[in-house]
Amino acid sequence: MELAVLLWMVFILTESTSAEADQYTRAVDWLSRYGYLPPPDPRTSKLQTKEGIERAIRVMQRFGGVRETGVLDNETIKLMSTPRCSLPDIVGSEDMLKRRRRRRRYALSGLKWQNTDLTWSIHSYPSQPHSPSLSKDLVESILTHAFKAWSDAAPLTFRQLPNNSEGPSAGGDIRVSFSSLLHDDGYPFDGKGGTLAHAFFPGRDPMAGDTHFDDHESWSYGGDSSSTDLFTVAVHEFGHALGLSHSSTDPSIMRPYYQGPVENIQSYQLALDDKLAIQQLYGVKNSRPSGGVDPKLPRLPSPPPPKPTQLPEPSFHERCKGGFDAVANIRGEVFFFKGAHFWRTKRDGSLVSLNPAQIHNFWIGLPQGTKKIDAVYERKSDSRIIFFIGPQYWVFKDTQAMSGYPRPLSDWGMRTERTALVDRVDAAFVWAHNGKTYLFSGGKFWRFDESRKGEQLPREPEPGYPRDNSLWSGVPTHMDDIISWGEGDAYFFKDNQYWVLKNGGLNQDGVTPKSIAVDWLRCPAPPSTSTTNPRIPKDCRCDLKGSSSSVRSSWILLILVLIGDFVRELV
Prior knowledge:
Blueprint (H helix, E strand, L loop, with lengths): L1 H32 L16 H15 L9 H7 L13 H6 L17 E6 L13 H16 L5 E4 L13 E6 L17 E3 L11 E4 L4 E2 L7 E2 H13 L29 H11 L43 E5 L2 E6 L2 E5 L11 E2 H4 L12 E4 L6 E5 L2 E6 L2 E2 L5 E2 L18 E5 L4 E6 L2 E5 L18 E2 L12 E5 L3 E6 L2 E5 L12 E2 H5 L28 H22 L1
Parallel strand pairs: 1-2, 1-3, 3-5, 6-7
Antiparallel strand pairs: 4-5, 8-9, 9-10, 10-11, 12-13, 13-14, 14-15, 14-16, 17-18, 18-19, 19-20, 21-22, 22-23, 23-24
Helix pairs in contact: 5-6
GO biological process, one term: proteolysis
Protein name: Matrix metalloproteinase-25-like
Cofactor: Ca(2+); Zn(2+)
């Protein structure tokens, strides 16, 4: 019996180790395929170094907008399994990899069409067994509207040609086809899921501009969870065919991962990042697109019944896990933002609700698909609320976004020591100690004087900035967010802990981290952890549920009596 148990344990351990090794091998292959690692060289048998793989994972995590750890955690493995475009995210040498370690706005391939009157054709259509809801006419209508998304933003025109000629250059500049597995271009598809499509950059090569969709996918118009929306993937791939690389910005149609359907393709407009990218290549369009439907475009049928747009509610226990994207003191209440939701604590320390609220239902004017907030703060001069998401920011009056937003983060004039503009804010707060606004990004911080009311554009940091985050001694140098609370104290939040710098001090090495979950969010304390809620009087002797110690003693006494009766029964 003991031998059987021992053999079973050895088998389980061996299987576990083998599975981890296989997962690691597949991850290295994924990183090589999408440009984060150089491809292996069979002539030299050169192995990837541990440091190089960790560095590549960090770049991939930052590009994909997940927590940057350098290890294959569950969030990273899930992102690697997400359906996506098969073009690499990092195009070029090790030098390019170094330059892409920080999140960038739009990315250009360096190639463009020399003419702006472009032609396109369809060489093959999606097969009916895999995509039964798409007729040939509907496919043409969807692709026409996908091209329109780009011609609305730049001086480009697209004319469809009939596919009735032979030869490699027949069918115009951009030739669309639905293919599967090996299809004679050197970039085979992998069946349903995984890679969805790819396109070739502009140029003189016979395949320049060609756009291929994996025919094994189930393509649809307004895809549900069991199919893939053709329009959003087509807009993305046509961006490549026009000369754009992948972008790490959210929102951007050029992110490499499938983003799901849009609400109305007839009124769809590109995000700011994508507009700036295409205009960098082809210039700005003189006339703005009209809000109505162009009568020259092919008519689309009524879209399928709308799917619920509400994101799944996270369990209220999620608040106890920490890892908040942003924390803000707004009107004396503290908001904890996580994903597309937030929790809110009142002045007396009580939670408005154990269940989170949806961000876009409360803050009217943020993008419908907002997945995370980078930083938020309330401006003290006029009580406006500023949201930072990627390379953009919004200004709110109460819970309504003001007109003219979003605007680019470059308005703030934050530059690194190498004069590069910052493209993301990690944390932001107004320090009650001096009334100044502090913005943090990439281990540095900038200080602003916003004492004058109203919008002052462009903004400029105070002289002598940026400075290094290490000046805030005793707290993490890469925090999730910061608020000012109480008598001007600064509260630094990181993962599931927070630190307090008292009374305007910077050099406080003796700061002890405390639990966000226990002190702020009414979560049960782990064993041997006492609560230190900054808003509960120190002489309170209550536990988390408000029950006194005498009640607990009564329960213990009752249990002892029951045990005694049980023993006497046995005797």
